[in-house]
Amino acid sequence: MSRKLRMGMIGGGIGAFIGAVHRIAAGIDGQIELVCGALDIDPERAVQAGKELYLDPARSYRTYDEMFEKESQLPADQRMDFVTIVTPNFVHFDPAKKALEHGFHVVCEKPMTFSTDEALELDRLVKETGLTFALAHTYTGYPMVKQARDMIKAGELGKIRKVVVEYPQGWLSTPLEQTGQQQAAWRTDPKKSGKAGSVGDIGTHAENLAETITGLHVTELSADVTKFVEGRMLDDDANVLLRFENGAKGVLHCSQIAAGEENALNIRVYGEKGGIQWHQHDPNTMYVKWLDKPMEVYRTGNGYMGEAAAAHTRTPAGHPEGYLEAFANIYRGFTKTVQAKISGSKVDPVYSDFPSTHEGVRGMKFIDAVIESGEKNAAWVKLD
Amino acid sequence: MSRKLRMGMIGGGIGAFIGAVHRIAAGIDGQIELVCGALDIDPERAVQAGKELYLDPARSYRTYDEMFEKESQLPADQRMDFVTIVTPNFVHFDPAKKALEHGFHVVCEKPMTFSTDEALELDRLVKETGLTFALAHTYTGYPMVKQARDMIKAGELGKIRKVVVEYPQGWLSTPLEQTGQQQAAWRTDPKKSGKAGSVGDIGTHAENLAETITGLHVTELSADVTKFVEGRMLDDDANVLLRFENGAKGVLHCSQIAAGEENALNIRVYGEKGGIQWHQHDPNTMYVKWLDKPMEVYRTGNGYMGEAAAAHTRTPAGHPEGYLEAFANIYRGFTKTVQAKISGSKVDPVYSDFPSTHEGVRGMKFIDAVIESGEKNAAWVKLD
Amino acid sequence: MSRKLRMGMIGGGIGAFIGAVHRIAAGIDGQIELVCGALDIDPERAVQAGKELYLDPARSYRTYDEMFEKESQLPADQRMDFVTIVTPNFVHFDPAKKALEHGFHVVCEKPMTFSTDEALELDRLVKETGLTFALAHTYTGYPMVKQARDMIKAGELGKIRKVVVEYPQGWLSTPLEQTGQQQAAWRTDPKKSGKAGSVGDIGTHAENLAETITGLHVTELSADVTKFVEGRMLDDDANVLLRFENGAKGVLHCSQIAAGEENALNIRVYGEKGGIQWHQHDPNTMYVKWLDKPMEVYRTGNGYMGEAAAAHTRTPAGHPEGYLEAFANIYRGFTKTVQAKISGSKVDPVYSDFPSTHEGVRGMKFIDAVIESGEKNAAWVKLD
Amino acid sequence: MSRKLRMGMIGGGIGAFIGAVHRIAAGIDGQIELVCGALDIDPERAVQAGKELYLDPARSYRTYDEMFEKESQLPADQRMDFVTIVTPNFVHFDPAKKALEHGFHVVCEKPMTFSTDEALELDRLVKETGLTFALAHTYTGYPMVKQARDMIKAGELGKIRKVVVEYPQGWLSTPLEQTGQQQAAWRTDPKKSGKAGSVGDIGTHAENLAETITGLHVTELSADVTKFVEGRMLDDDANVLLRFENGAKGVLHCSQIAAGEENALNIRVYGEKGGIQWHQHDPNTMYVKWLDKPMEVYRTGNGYMGEAAAAHTRTPAGHPEGYLEAFANIYRGFTKTVQAKISGSKVDPVYSDFPSTHEGVRGMKFIDAVIESGEKNAAWVKLD
Question: Are B222 and C378 inside 8 Å of each other by CB?
Answer without folding.
Answer: yes
